[in-house]
């Protein structure tokens, strides 16, 4: 997209590029933030869901009579009551259709599946009612499948009777050049790498408040995508879209889990409509752990062809996603495709043949989590490189140097069609190496006298697709967003965008963009997000898209607004439009001493004193822009490839760890990030995104793991006591440095930075610990790297060597 | 031995942020729900209701307390302070700690922030300013957005300023 305003801001930005303080802070700091659970409406009823306690069963009976008899319970609804609600759409043709009903009818496929809704005058009574419904529910248990092996075994119990097996999809490209690489290479090794089940886990659980007044259904939802919720709720409840309004108030984090549209998003509005009373459901943490999507559970069976000098000739990788029950809208299938698309990271490595498989199991549905498949792929690639380096006696950093994309090598088309438009792949790695070298020495020195401690270093070089296609993920939506810009009679600017925000600082960002575009101060800009009635259509915040979508849409709308404003000002200045310039927040005739025309005067002329407008000009000063990146593809090309992201950020993580041999305790001593997200709009916000992403990455690398009983598919977690979210004591200090390689095809060169931080840590920690324990041949293939896992790896190494000399204590 | 009859309701008198409140409440009502729903101060957030995440931290008689682990009736006669009481009344100013959080980008979604602020409000900085002690103090509150680094920076900055100003009152 070519915009005049784009080059104007690049040359004379006053706010873009600066750490403008956040406007979002005051509410939460003073206790006056307004989150979904803070909304209270007159007569509002509380909803609590009864959820399956079986992993796989037929429901043979639900006796709701005791719950209904409880004082304060207003109603109990089951699937049969919702016969006027449509099924969640199955939009993606190549995956198994799950035909999901909002409430389970006669079959439950995971512990936590909602099958009844209890409505009561307060939450405590609604909980009592749900307990009574649970006590009145009878099941006929069915055989379970708890993991991929069980799901894909021949004769496995099927979750869906109308499927041939539990396999939802299996996409297997064949690349003759990879066959050739295997024929020609000196050696081959095979390995299985595993990424464990985790979740985004926002501190605020999900919640929905709904109220139907005068034919309009208003839904307050802690969603990342209010417009998509509106479209879907209207479809499922059979209502015209203009009669559904979805608002997201303040949101306490999302991290992908709130991109999905859940049963509760439909059932609570249905209850409000049915009972003609406001209704509220707030997820509690225990249900959050089973009823909000999980992610990242993948297995990768790889074959690697390599030469004696360390050259990796070709890789075959079968990436398998454990989808859980699959009962989630949008489906949680896309991350494993992203894994394969991004698996080669910033390396010049075309000879990758990646097969993509998804299977359903009797666990919580899998879905989105910040990183969206990228960390799983980076883990596989970096572990492969480390293994080849070890097998061939090659320096690990040198091998990466040989493989990384060099300056001038972009644009570069990856093995799956991803087009790396720009980047600083080699530069980031070299910078990170420089930063880490003295620290590594210090850490080694610090532990030199301790025979129980070993030190290691781990690397990850990755790419982060930004502003991706949502068509591949949803089978329905695309990848653009709209914004409207208005100047009011007093000269104030109002920006309304379809984007949503839940901590990223998008309101601050939008104000910076509009301020630079219109020559005003951010304080003069009011930003409206997260309300379908007050904003144009947008897909929300996910996929590291907020910065680029705001930039494109706000600048497009601003440029259109400026054109009109300049015409009005020229008329008022009795000058030619071409002679009118915008400087210091007012319109002047260039080179003239005539008084200027302010935004307030232009705004007043446009809306109020229309007598001041040029003859024939339509009144008003409000314009819109819908930004859709031109280079973004939504469909595979003839060769089966796709560039499904508008741009690509990149980065390098290096971690230095110490490992205590006797206990398996791992300490991250230093963590270095060099990243490149193109043009930076607000450095403080970008750094915050990096910090938070790395912390979540470390959570996955070392702590968080949803474990299920392999025999019953029953969850082995119920609280933060079993699902270990890192505290301040576990997250190390991060040293962050930046490159800025502007996205050549995007406004201002903005790329995006939401997810990259999560990508490196699993690869870095596993690599660093393996390096530290290399004298015993330890080479980790999965996370989390817990003390137990470290000790097990040491014991296995000892067993392999027959307990000879050099065995760990 | 005294046998206590089960009760379903009880009277509570609690001072919240300096204002007296009197209510008849269900005996099982959590202090967190009492503060949020009965008194109507929603700045105290519920992150887990298991006593783990610290988001619901308030001060009860000067001590930091997880309000999800206490019943409203247990607070009978107590002085409770919540996040709404931190900023100086009647002005747009923030407390030094709130200001430091803002200046250091120590909050993103803001859901956990009140808990951090109340934990910090309840301690004597002199006892916790050592970096290792500070990490220990903050490790009772979960944050999912910031990676904690900017929170540590904010607290350090606020406490340094506190020191420099000769012990002016933070609250």
Low-pLDDT residue spans of chain A? none
Biggest pleated sheet of chain B: 5 strands, mixed
Based on DSSP secondary structure assignment, what is the total number of beta strands of chain A?
Answer: 28
Question: Could you tell me the strand content of chain A as a percent range?
Answer: 15-25%
The first-to-last residue Cα distance of chain A is 63 Å
Question: What are its keywords?
Answer:
heterodimer, A: 809 residues, alpha+beta, Aldehyde Oxidoreductase, domain 4, Aldehyde Oxidoreductase, domain 3, five-stranded mixed sheet, B: 171 residues, DNA polymerase, domain 1, 6 helices, 5 strands, 32% helix, elongated
Structural description of this entry:
The complex is a heterodimer of chains A (809) and B (171). With 809 residues, chain A is α+β, with helices and mostly antiparallel strands. Chain A folds into three domains: 4-33 and 480-627, 2-Layer Sandwich (Aldehyde Oxidoreductase, domain 4); 36-142 and 205-251 and 257-291, Aldehyde Oxidoreductase, domain 3 (Alpha-Beta Complex); 298-471 and 633-800, 2-Layer Sandwich (Aldehyde Oxidoreductase, domain 4). Chain A contains 20 helices and 28 strands. Chain A has a seven-stranded mixed sheet with strand order 3-5-1-12-9-10-11, sandwiched between helices. In chain A, β14, α10 (334-342) and β15 (352-359) form a beta-alpha-beta unit. The radius of gyration of chain A is 28 Å and the shape is globular. The N and C termini of chain A lie far apart (63 Å). In chain A, 58% of the residues are buried. The model of chain A has no long low-confidence stretch (mean pLDDT 96). Chain B is an alpha+beta fold. In chain B, α2 (96-103) crosses α6. Mean pLDDT of chain B is 93; it is low at 166-171. In chain B, β3 and β4 form a beta hairpin. Chain B has six helices and five strands; from the N terminus they run ββαβββααααα. Chain B folds into two domains: 9-85, Beta-grasp domain (Ubiquitin-like (UB roll), Roll), CATH 3.10.20; 96-164, DNA polymerase, domain 1 (Orthogonal Bundle), CATH 1.10.150.120. The radius of gyration of chain B is 17 Å and the shape is elongated. At the A-B interface, α2 and α18 of A face α1, α2, α3, α5 and α6 of B.
């Amino acid at each position: 997209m070519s915009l005049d305003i784009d080059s104007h801001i690049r040359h004379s930005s006053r706010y873009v590029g600066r750490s403008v303080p956040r406007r979002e802070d005051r509410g939460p700091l003073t206790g006056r933030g307004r989150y979904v659970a803070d909304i209270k409406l007159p007569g509002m009823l509380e909803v609590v869901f009864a959820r399956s306690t079986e992993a796989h069963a037929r429901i043979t009976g639900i006796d709701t009579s005791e719950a209904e008899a409880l004082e304060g319970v207003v109603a109990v609804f089951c699937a049969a009551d919702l016969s006027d609600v449509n099924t969640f759409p199955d939009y993606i043709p190549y995956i198994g259709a799950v035909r999901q009903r909002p409430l389970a009818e006669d079959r439950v496929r995971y512990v936590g599946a909602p099958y009844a809704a209890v409505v009561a005058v307060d939450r405590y009574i609604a909980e009592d009612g749900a307990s009574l419904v649970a006590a009145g529910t009878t099941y006929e248990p069915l055989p379970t499948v708890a993991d991929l092996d069980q799901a894909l075994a021949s004769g496995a119990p099927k979750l869906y009777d109308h499927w041939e097996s539990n396999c939802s999809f299996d996409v297997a490209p064949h690349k003759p050049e990879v066959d050739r690489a295997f024929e020609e290479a000196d050696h081959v090794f095979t390995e299985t790498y595993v990424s464990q089940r985790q979740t985004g886990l926002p501190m605020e659980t999900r919640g929905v408040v709904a109220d139907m007044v005068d034919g309009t259904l208003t839904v307050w939802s802690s969603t990342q995508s209010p417009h998509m919720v509106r479209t879907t709720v209207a479809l499922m409840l059979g209502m015209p879209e203009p009669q559904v309004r979805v608002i997201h108030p303040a949101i306490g984090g999302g991290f992908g889990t709130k991109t999905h549209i859940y049963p509760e998003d439909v059932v609570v509005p249905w209850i409000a409509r049915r009972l003609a009373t406001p209704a509220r459901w707030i997820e509690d943490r225990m249900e959050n752990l089973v009823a909000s999507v999980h992610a990242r559970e993948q297995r990768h069976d790889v074959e690697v062809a390599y030469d004696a000098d360390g050259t990796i000739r070709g890789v075959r990788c079968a990436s398998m996603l454990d989808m859980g029950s699959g009962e989630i809208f949008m489906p949680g299938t896309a991350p494993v495709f992203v894994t394969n698309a991004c698996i080669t990271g910033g390396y010049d490595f075309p000879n990758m043949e990646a097969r993509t498989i998804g299977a359903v199991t009797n666990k919580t549905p899998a879905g989105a989590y910040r990183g969206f498949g990228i960390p799983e792929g980076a883990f596989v690639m970096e572990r492969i490189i480390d293994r080849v380096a070890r097998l061939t006696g090659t320096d690990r950093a040198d091998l990466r140097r040989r493989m990384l994309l060099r300056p001038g090598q972009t644009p570069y088309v990856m093995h799956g069609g991803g087009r790396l438009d720009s980047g600083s792949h080699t530069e980031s790695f070299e910078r990170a190496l420089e930063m880490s070298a003295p620290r590594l020495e210090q850490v080694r020195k610090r532990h030199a006298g301790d025979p129980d401690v070993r030190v290691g270093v781990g690397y990850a070089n990755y790419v982060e697709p930004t502003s991706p296609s949502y068509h591949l993920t949803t089978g329905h939506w695309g990848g653009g967003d709209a914004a409207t810009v208005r100047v009011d009679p007093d000269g104030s600017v109002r920006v309304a965008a379809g984007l949503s925000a839940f901590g990223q600082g998008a309101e601050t960002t939008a104000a910076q963009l509009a301020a630079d575009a219109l020559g005003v101060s951010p304080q003069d800009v009011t930003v409206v997000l997260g309300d379908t009635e007050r904003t144009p259509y947008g897909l929300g915040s996910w996929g590291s898209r907020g910065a680029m979508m705001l930039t494109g849409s706000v600048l497009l709308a601003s440029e259109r607004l400026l054109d009109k404003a300049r015409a009005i000002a020229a008329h008022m200045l009795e000058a030619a439009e071409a002679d009118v310039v915008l400087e210091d927040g007012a319109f002047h005739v260039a080179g003239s001493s005539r008084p200027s025309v302010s935004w307030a005067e232009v705004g007043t002329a446009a809306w109020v004193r229309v007598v001041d407008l040029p003859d024939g000009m339509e009144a008003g000063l409000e314009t819109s822009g819908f930004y859709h990146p031109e280079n973004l593809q939504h469909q595979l090309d003839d060769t089966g490839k796709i560039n499904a992201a508008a741009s690509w950020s990149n980065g390098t993580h290096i971690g230095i760890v110490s490992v205590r041999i006797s206990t398996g305790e791992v300490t991250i001593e230093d963590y270095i990030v060099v990243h490149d997200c193109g043009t930076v709009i607000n450095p403080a916000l970008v750094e915050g995104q990096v910090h938070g992403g790395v912390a979540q990455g470390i959570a996955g690398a070392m702590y968080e793991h949803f474990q299920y009983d392999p025999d019953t598919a029953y969850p082995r977690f119920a609280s933060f006591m079993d699902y270990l979210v890192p505290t301040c004591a576990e997250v190390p200090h991060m040293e962050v440095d930046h490159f800025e390689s502007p996205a050549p095809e995007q406004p201002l060169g903005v790329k995006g930075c939401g997810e990259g931080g999560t990508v490196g840590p699993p690869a870095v920690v596993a690599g660093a610990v393996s390096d530290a324990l290399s004298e015993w041949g330890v080479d980790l293939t999965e996370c989390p790297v817990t003390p137990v896992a470290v000790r097990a790896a040491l014991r296995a190494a000892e067993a392999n060597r027959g307990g000879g000399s050099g065995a760990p204590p | 031995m005294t046998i206590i009859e089960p009760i379903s309701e009880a009277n509570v008198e609690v001072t919240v942020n300096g204002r007296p409140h009197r209510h008849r409440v269900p005996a099982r009502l959590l202090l967190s729900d009492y503060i949020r729903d009965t008194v109507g101060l929603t700045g105290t957030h519920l992150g887990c209701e298991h006593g783990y995440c610290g988001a619901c931290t308030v001060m009860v008689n000067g001590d930091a307390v997880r309000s999800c682990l206490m019943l409203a009736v247990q607070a009978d006669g107590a002085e409770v302070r919540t996040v709404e009481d931190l900023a100086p009344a009647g002005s747009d100013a923030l407390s030094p700690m709130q200001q430091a959080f803002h200046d250091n980008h120590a909050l993103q979604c803001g859901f956990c922030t009140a808990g951090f602020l109340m934990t910090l409000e309840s301690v004597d900085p002199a006892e916790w300013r050592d970096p290792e002690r500070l990490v220990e103090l903050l490790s009772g509150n979960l944050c999912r957005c910031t990676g904690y680094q900017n929170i540590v920076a904010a607290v350090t900055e606020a406490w340094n300023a506190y020191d420099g100003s000769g012990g002016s009152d933070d609250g």
